Amino acid sequence: MTADPVRRVLCDAGPLIALGKLGRLDLLAPLYETVTIAQAVYEEVVVAGIRRGYPDALAVRLLWRQQHWPVITPDAHTLASYTPVVMLDQGERETFALAPLHPAISSPRDG
Predict the structure, then answer these.
(1) Pure H helices in the chain
(2) pLDDT digits (tens, 9 = 90+) for 58-74
(3) What is the pTM of this model?
(4) Which pairs from 57-62 meet CB under 8 Å and 24+ separation?
(5) All domains of the chain, ordered by start, with CATH?
(6) DSSP assignment, residue 27?
(7) Is the distance from CB of 47 to CB of 10 less than 8 angstroms?
(8) At what angle do helices 13-22 and 55-67 cross, to 10 degrees?
């Protein structure tokens, strides 16, 4: 008997950038009902990517619009309550700060 696939995931920028550059963003929708990202991840992948002329950034933006997947901005209290033990960029920090608030969502680093 196999376990049910994870239907919802909280994602950081790395997997989106990699899948976008490989032209395989199409793998996400069949695997996950919902892919949630932090606002800082969207800014890093889509906004900064478009500014730099990366075509995969446009593909990520289109996918999010088509799937109606959420982009979440953590409030100040949520960010303040998370203290990383290593240096993280803003997208990683927001993703890890949001993870405990969404227990039904798996993060890519869940073991």
Answers:
(1) 13-22, 28-31, 39-42, 48-51, 55-67, 76-81, 90-98
(2) 999 999 999 999 999 98
(3) 0.81
(4) 57/20, 59/20, 59/23, 59/25, 60/16, 60/20, 60/25
(5) 8-101 (3.40.50.1010)
(6) G
(7) no
(8) 110
